[in-house]
Amino acid sequence: MKVLVAVKRVIDYNVKIRVRSDHSDVDLTNVKMAMNPFCEIAVEEAVRLKETGVATEVVVVTVGPKAAQEQLRTALALGADRAIHIDTSVETDNKVESLTVAKLLKGVVDEEQPGLVIFGKQAIDTDNNQTGQMLAALTGWGQGTFASEVKVEGDTLQVTREIDGGLQTVSLQLPAIVTTDLRLNEPRYAKLPDIMKAKKKLLEVKSPAEFGVEVVSNITLLKVEPPAERQGGVKVGSVDELVDKLKNEAKVL
Questions:
Q1: How far apart are alpha carbons 105 and 35 in whole angstroms?
Q2: CB 3.0-4.6 Å disulfide test: which of 4, 102, 207, 224 passes with 134?
């Protein structure tokens, strides 16, 4: 079975985000970029499926500028076999929207015919949590979102999902779409020999036009604001003082 994994280039989660002075967007000047953490989990799960003999090939794909090839090379170093980059640098400088990404990935799915597609449940930059679901709708495949456990049994996929009430297990007929949650696995670190080997693995570059998809923006970003700064706490000397502050300052009583 071939497994297709979608990954995204985002700001490294360790970086403190800066907003541009005109509040038009996030400032990306000299900012470290990395693979989306949920996508790392998706890559790890696909590689584990290959190591256990369930998957025969792991293909990673990303949609974005040329610089996103760095994240594809990272995925190759983690154990993926080959990569596909859909380069959107020429079409637009704006962010590519989820539905456009889903349509492009539908074109990749039609070409590659994978038995399973794995996503991170969401990207930490936009937090939309919708591309995997959109691709499931476009392909007509079953989907298991927020996966904390994945088991392949023949042509059936058992996905344990994290929901508000606890855990839910669903059975999907392959081919299917899975989006990963944090507790699915612990991603490995790429070793130096694997990083060197990744440079020789196939990385194919395609354009949106090859899939018949036009990259257009239907959403206008109006303003970006940093989160409000939290005020420091205070110590109180008695219960009466605490109640007074909660009632007269915090206005919660």
A1: 18
A2: 102
